[in-house]
Amino acid sequence: MALIGFIGLGNMGSGMAANLVKAGHEVRGFDLNPDAVKQLAEKGATAAKSVEEAVDGADAVVTMLPAGQHVRGIYEGDGGILSLAKSDAVLIDCSTIDVASARAVAEAAKEKGFAFVDAPVSGGVAAAEGGTLTFMVGGSQEAFAKAEPILQGMGKAVIRAGEAGDGQAAKICNNMLLAIHMIGTCEAMNLAQRLGLDPQNFFNIASQASGQNWSLTSYCPVPGPVPAAPSNRDYKPGFAAPMMLKDLKLAMDAARSVDASTPLGAEAQALYQMFNQLGGESLDFSGIIKMVSGEFGESAD
Prior knowledge:
Layout: E1 3-7, H1 11-22, E2 26-30, H2 34-41, E3 46-47, H3 51-55, E4 60-63, H4 68-76, H5 81-84, E5 90-93, H6 99-111, E6 115-118, E7 121-122, H7 124-130, E8 133-138, H8 141-152, E9 155-162, H9 166-194, H10 199-206, H11 214-217, H12 241-257, H13 263-277, H14 289-292
Parallel strand pairs: 1-2, 1-4, 2-3, 4-5, 5-6, 8-9
Antiparallel strand pairs: 7-8
Helix pairs in contact: 1-7, 4-6, 9-12, 9-13, 12-13
């Protein structure tokens, strides 16, 4: 088992770090929020008072941070991970950030001789807590081989997407597709109900027909058909609407950088922007059905 420094104990990171403890690793956790560090320590980790304390002597360092500037700052900045970690440590960034930042950190790590991967996740808070995340990993074959055993302690699938930054590319493409699917599923469910179809009956049909998709069968935005979905918990976030908007903005920025046509992605970003502005920022991203149906704010006509 490994000694792991884990930095960033928010809604996702706290569950991920706890699962590393359950997997038998020795985990040192650090976050700017002392309560988050204390809660992780209660689950068997060691509370670190600083990044330096978390990283010192660690076999692996895992980061889960909000945005590219935070990742670059904590790796490349004065007293950052690249100046603190032991030379044979594997560095794993699980944040969802822009591709350019991921590749810049990877290059800086390579120059100092570190094995580094970008490994953003899919699955949301429930999967982070349950240890069933999917990791999309960018980095060399050698770095992936070192990171894979650590990532397996937090997820059900660890997939190498390609070279540095490719994990981030896969994540934003996946989540753009997810957003488009969710909006389409909400529109179809709303139309079905207005046409007099029972939601459960329509679910039974569509989930076995050509309209089948993950947003319908695993995360149905209408209460009832999928008991574990946030729709049955008043849309308490599993994957919050502001996080979906963040990922869509990253996808649109990436699309512009390579001159890719993404009209549905752009429309999805506009709709999630509207949803957040109308009060959806406290809800799960599937809660956009409330806007689609006109239940609150205004419908997206």
